[in-house]
Design a protein that fits this description.
Length: about 130
């Protein structure tokens, strides 16, 4: 009976140690579950922040893309305007050169007319003297 009593005492100690171990493990599991929930919540928050940041970045990119398209359109219209101005300037220079040539011809014609007029006067005076 003593042996049985010792055996029971020993079994009781083992059972108590197992209960303590189980309780410690249960507390540890609860701590791990709590930590896991916190990490999952943090991860979800980070995911949401990244999603928001991605959406803002996409909106920024969309806005910038639109601005680039607008600027390209402006540049294209300015290029057309520049081509038109260059064409007009070319025509202006051509007309200016033509005007200079005509002005020289007019000046030469006036000189010729003046010389002919002098010759005519001289001829008229010579005829009057006869």
């Amino acid at each position: 009976e003593l042996e049985d009593s010792d055996k029971m005492d020993e079994d009781s100690k083992i059972i108590e140690e197992l209960r303590v171990t189980i309780e410690r493990q249960r507390l540890h599991i609860l701590q791990l579950e709590k930590a896991l929930k916190q990490e999952v919540a943090k991860k979800e928050e980070i995911k949401n922040l990244k999603s928001d940041e991605l959406q803002k970045s996409q909106e920024t990119i969309k806005g910038l893309t639109q601005k680039v398209a607008n600027f390209m359109s402006i540049v294209d219209s300015k290029n057309i305007e520049l081509q038109n101005l260059q064409t007009a300037l070319g025509q202006y220079y051509a007309e200016s050169e033509a005007k200079e040539r005509l002005a020289k011809r007019v000046w030469c014609s006036k000189r010729t007319i003046a010389k002919l007029s002098e010759s005519l006067k001289a001829a008229n005076q010579a005829l009057e003297c006869l």
